[in-house]
Every structure is written in structure tokens, then in C-alpha cells.
Design a protein that fits this description.
This protein has about 400 residues and is mainly alpha-helical. It is built from 23 helices and no strands. Among the domains are: about 90 residues, Leucine-rich Repeat Variant; about 100 residues, Leucine-rich Repeat Variant. It is about 75% helix and about 0% strand.
């Protein structure tokens, strides 16, 4: 009886034997694939290192054109290396170093290749091309990036917005603003905001034209961006935003006034601390804290008596930063006869470590006993409240 007939006679054992052979074959093929892949990647990285070193050694000649682009342009690996070095150099270059880099990018056809890919290919290749176009910082890249904003694919639109943001030119902000005005909101807000900040950094006035036309959420988004980029040159436009019907726009206007600090910022913010919306008042208090002028004390004292706890806390923080006039401020806080305002101010003094200096200042012979007694009584009451709260928490934890 031969070997095959013996296996047939075994019946079920034959099936098991064949399964073992197939498993061993699969394991062998998997190990062979892993080994081949490791060998291939090692060979690729070795070639990459060799070609990178070779191209780096003649980089100045490549930029000047002494080494013609045809010697590396049609070689896939060399082309990828040169493009990567060019884009990295463009992002780190000074204005004086930029012209030869852009000339090489254009004359070699690398820019045209990426523009073609952004319009002709799909999927991850198109997204890669869009991001690469943004890194070129060239006006020619704006048109294909703007076309990709209306792609049906979400990831492609996000890549286009990020590419336009990388260009960092005011012209690149125009297609983003046109897209925002449509109000579709199919792109995460933080992506839109970061791109607009990058493009409008040197020309925030471009936002005002679109802000006048926008409504709803797009208007609030543009106002937030303007709040970060505002400059004194925007002038009276900021006053109009400070009186806008939309509370979010008013809050952004308060932030803009604090960042730009035009001559009229203090009187406008002094009015905004009385706004009907608490978060507008809060933004106004934060903006007042950044203005170095004694006239800010009066509106901050008004905010210290605000009905909203967050506004009071921020106003107390702002007042506690005025170290040269704490004694006078304390007297004015006492004169408000507002218990919550006094507690908020003293708590902030304790937190900032200024309370001991203030107590020493009140020990002078010319200081009123009333101010010193009120300060010490309030400080004692505050500490007792903290101790009682700690004991209550400890008792609650022990009961559990």
C-alpha cells in the first residue's frame, strides 16, 4: 500500500494533515513577505540617503540652474527629494532668500506639476498636492486651491483651506471669505479661523468688507478673527462693531479694542462694561485690564459690583494687578458698600500674594482705622469660610 492510499485510509486525519501543510505554507509566505518588505524598505532608504547627499552637495548649482532640471526632474526619487528640500527652504527663508527658491520651483516645472495634480487627480494624491501648493507661498497656487474648496469630499476641502492658510497672502483670504459667506459650515471652524488669521495678519481691513455683508454664524466667525488681528488703523469701524446688535460681535469688538488699543478704546470699553450680556461685559473687563491708564479703575470698580460672578472675579484680578495704587483702590472698593465686591477683591489679593503688603501699608499712623478693620475682618471671614468648607468636605468624605 503506497503513501497516498494510506492517507485515504486515514479519513479525517488526511484533512487535518492538509490543513497543517496549508498553515505552514501560509506562515512561510508571510515570513517571506515580511523579510522582502524589510529588505526593500532598507534598500529604498539607502538609495534615499545616497541621492539626498548627492543632491545636497550640488544644491547651489541646482538653484542657479547650472545643473539643468532635466537631470533630476524625470527621476521620481530625485524629484521628490528636490521638491521636499525646496518647500522646507521656502518656509524657513527670509524675504531676501526667497526669490531664487521660487524661481527654481517655477522654472523646474514642480509648481506646474502640483497645480496639475490638484486639478486632475483624486483622493489622497490630490490632498497631498493641495498641501504642497500651500507650502509654496506663491500666488499661482491660489486658483487651484480655491477650486478645491467646492469639492464634494470633506477631506479635500479641509486640505484646500489649510493650503490657502499656508500661503499667508491677503489674496488667499478672498476665496476663503467667499466660501464663509455661503454659510455652509462644512469645514471645522478652527480650520477656517486659523487660515484666515494667517492670510489676514498683515491686512485685517479686508475682513471688514465681508463682515458688513455676512449674517448669522459667518458674521460671528469673522468678528472673532478680526478681534485677534485688529490694529489702531481700523479706527471708527471698531466703534460700529462695539454697538452691533449681535452680542458675539460686540464681545469680539471688545477683544479687538483691547488688542489694538486705539485712542478711543478706554471710553468705549467703559460703556461696554454695562452691556446687557455678561460675556460682553467680561470681554470688556479683560480688555480694560490690558490698558495702562488710571482711568480704567472706575469702570473696573463698576464691574467689580457686577451681578455675574465671572465678571466680578476678572475685575478683581484686573484691579489687583495695579500694585502701585492698591491702597486707594481698597478704599474705593469699601466705599461701594458691596459685600460681594469686597470679598472678590480681597480673595484676589490673597491669591496674588499682595495682601500682606497691603496690610503692612495700612499699619501707618495716617491710615484710617475703618479701612484697616474692614480689611482684617473680611480677610478673617474669608479664611473661616475656607476652613469650614474644607471641614465639611472632609466630613462628607469620611461619611462615605
Amino acid at each position: 500500500m503506497d503513501f497516498t492510499s494510506r492517507l485515504a485510509a486515514l479519513g479525517f486525519a488526511q484533512i487535518i494533515f492538509k490543513a497543517i501543510l496549508l498553515s505552514l505554507l501560509g506562515i512561510f509566505l508571510l515570513v517571506a513577505f515580511i523579510a522582502f518588505r524589510r529588505w526593500y524598505r532598507g534598500r529604498y532608504f539607502q538609495q534615499l540617503n545616497e541621492r539626498t547627499f548627492a543632491l545636497r552637495s550640488q544644491w547651489n548649482e541646482i538653484l542657479s540652474g547650472k545643473v539643468p532640471a532635466r537631470s533630476w526632474r524625470l527621476k521620481t526619487l530625485d524629484c521628490e527629494i528636490v521638491e521636499s528640500i525646496l518647500l522646507d527652504s521656502i518656509e524657513a527663508a527670509s524675504p531676501q532668500q526667497l526669490p531664487p527658491l521660487l524661481h527654481c520651483l517655477r522654472s523646474s516645472g514642480l509648481l506646474d506639476m502640483r497645480i496639475h495634480e490638484a486639478r486632475a487627480v483624486t483622493g489622497w494624491k490630490r490632498r497631498t498636492a493641495l498641501v504642497a501648493l500651500g507650502r509654496t507661498h506663491t500666488p499661482e497656487a491660489i486658483a487651484p486651491l480655491a477650486e478645491a474648496l467646492y469639492s464634494p469630499d470633506d477631506e479635500t476641502r479641509i486640505a484646500a483651506i489649510r493650503g490657502l492658510g499656508h500661503i499667508e497672502l491677503p489674496q488667499a483670504a478672498v476665496p476663503i471669505l467667499d466660501y464663509v459667506l455661503l454659510g455652509k459650515q462644512q469645514i471645522p471652524e478652527h480650520v477656517l479661523k486659523n487660515a484666515l488669521v494667517s492670510c489676514c495678519l498683515n491686512n485685517p481691513a479686508i475682513l471688514l468688507r465681508y463682515l458688513k455683508e455676512a449674517t448669522g454664524h459667518p458674521r460671528e466667525l469673522l468678528a472673532r478673527v478680526l478681534g485677534e488681528l485688529a490694529t489702531p488703523q481700523l479706527g471708527e469701524d471698531l466703534i460700529l462693531l462695539a454697538t452691533d446688535e449681535d452680542a458675539e460681535v460686540r464681545a469680539s469688538a471688545a477683544r479687538a479694542l483691547g488688542n489694538s488699543q486705539p485712542s478711543f478704546a478706554l471710553p468705549v470699553l467703559s460703556v461696554m462694561v454695562r452691556d446687557k450680556e455678561w460675556f460682553v461685559r467680561l470681554r470688556a473687563v479683560v480688555a480694560l485690564a490690558s490698558i495702562q491708564h488710571n482711568a480704567r479703575i472706575r469702570p473696573l470698580l463698576h464691574a467689580l459690583c457686577d451681578s455675574n460672578r465671572y465678571v466680578r472675579q476678572r475685575a478683581a484680578w484686573a484691579l489687583a494687578q495695579i500694585e502701585t495704587d492698591l491702597h486707594s483702590i481698597l478704599s474705593q472698593v469699601v466705599d461701594t458698600q458691596d459685600e460681594y465686591a469686597l470679598q472678590a477683591f480681597i480673595s484676589e489679593l490673597e491669591r496674588s500674594g499682595e495682601i500682606d503688603n497691603l496690610v503692612e501699608a495700612l499699619q501707618g499712623p495716617h491710615e484710617t482705622h475703618a479701612a484697616r478693620n474692614i480689611l482684617l475682618q473680611t480677610l478673617s471671614a474669608t479664611r473661616q469660610n475656607i476652613e469650614q468648607a474644607s471641614k465639611a468636605m472632609a466630613a462628607s468624605a469620611g461619611g462615605r
